[in-house]
């Protein structure tokens, strides 16, 4: 499936995590069908996949203490699944899953990446995974309650979890005045990405021919790989670049680097345009 760059780019500004859903508002059947189709078709990597499940969604989520922090009222969820034999499974699942999350946003649905407070064994039994596969994260899907509940506001630190670090703290490499014109918008799209506990573990090394994403922070992962967060930022970076007409491809790299987005030269771009890509 070709990435609908402009559609997903528009979703980047709109998306925010929502945890409490309206249990009485069924998801529009057209939206559900469209989301299911994208889950099945957006498979950029062999070992990462997404599955929409419309039963038992509430049994998949759990609270931090008791029911505090628990996702409530969701009528469906999406499981983000990876084959653990793949050395780049976390970034592949993050990249793939964020495409699905941005599509859900475009369809008017609310979501919340959940990598910690869910029951992977229940999610796995509902989607049927192979021996090598694991459900690395899930998202509830539905229509969020119109205004944020007290519990939701507490979970976001009264909105603080929506804030992000400035680019100056995240970037190294070429000085800003030498950045090619497409870099600013890409890094902004990546900077705004969601991450587990809003830890923003990514860094960006800007070079003449592309951008390398790397794990910038040290410290424990708390059961959710920082490389999964970085995969989410990668998808956003590429979406923003392509929306400005700059295409490229990812090369995965060993830790602490994650991957380099190499921009195609003008001749490659021309060849791609000629064969209708
Ligand atoms: C990989 C990943 C795992 C996450 N796990 C959880 C989780 O277990 N529980 C939860 O309530 N939120 C979880 N979140 C949501 C983050 O807390 C949220 O994205 C972050 O605080 C930024 O807020 P925003 O998404 O509203 O911009 C997770 C996000 C990501 C990307």
Structure explained in plain terms:
This protein is α+β, with helices and mostly antiparallel strands and 277 residues long. 33% of the residues lie in helices and 18% in strands. It contains eight helices and eight strands. Strands 4-5-6-8-7 form a five-stranded mixed beta sheet, with helices on one face. A hairpin with a 2-residue loop joins strand 5 and strand 6. Helix 1 crosses helix 7. The chain is globular, with a radius of gyration of 18 Å. The termini are close together. The model has no long low-confidence stretch (mean pLDDT 94). Residues 16-17, 19, 69, 112-117, 137, 155, 161-162, 194-198, 224, 228-229, 232 line the site of flavin mononucleotide.
What is the overall silhouette?
A: globular
What letter string, H or E per element, gives the SSE order? HHEEHHEHEHEEHEEH
Radius of gyration: 18 Å
Per DSSP, the total helix count is: 8
Quote the distance from N terminus to C terminus: 11 Å
Bound molecules: flavin mononucleotide
Structural class computed from helices and strand pairing: alpha+beta
Strand arrangement, largest sheet? 4-5-6-8-7
From the structure provided, what is the oligomeric state, counting identical versus distinct chains? single chain
Low-confidence stretches: none
Proportion in β-strands: 15-25%
Number of strands: 8
The biggest beta sheet is recorded as:
5 strands, mixed
Helix percent reads 25-40%
> What do the pLDDT scores average to?
94
């Amino acid at each position: 499936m070709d990435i609908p760059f402009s559609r997903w780019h528009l979703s980047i500004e709109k998306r925010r995590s929502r945890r409490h859903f309206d249990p009485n508002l069924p998801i529009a059947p057209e939206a559900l069908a469209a989301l299911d189709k994208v889950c099945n078709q957006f498979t950029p990597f062999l070992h990462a996949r997404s599955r929409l499940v419309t039963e038992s969604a509430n049994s998949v989520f759990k609270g931090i203490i008791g029911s505090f922090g628990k996702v409530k009222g969701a009528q469906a969820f999406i499981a983000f699944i990876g084959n653990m034999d793949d050395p780049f499974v976390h970034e592949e699942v993050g990249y793939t899953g964020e495409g699905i999350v941005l599509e859900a946003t475009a369809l008017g649905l609310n979501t919340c990446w959940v990598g910690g407070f869910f029951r992977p064994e229940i999610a796995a039994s509902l989607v049927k995974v192979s021996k090598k596969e694991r459900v690395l994260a899930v998202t509830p899907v539905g229509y969020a309650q119109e205004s944020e509940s007290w519990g939701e506001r507490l979970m976001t630190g009264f909105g603080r979890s929506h804030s992000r670090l400035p680019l100056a703290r995240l970037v190294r490499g070429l000085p800003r005045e030498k950045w090619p014109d497409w870099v600013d918008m890409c890094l902004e799209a990546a900077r705004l990405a969601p991450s587990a506990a809003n830890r923003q573990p990514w860094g960006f090394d800007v070079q003449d021919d592309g951008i390398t994403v790397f794990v910038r922070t040290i410290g424990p992962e708390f059961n959710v790989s920082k490389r999964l967060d970085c995969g989410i930022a990668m998808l956003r970076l590429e979406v923003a670049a392509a929306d400005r007409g700059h295409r490229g491809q990812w090369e995965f790299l060993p830790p602490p680097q994650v991957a380099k987005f190499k921009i195609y030269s003008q001749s490659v771009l021309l060849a791609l345009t000629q064969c209708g890509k």
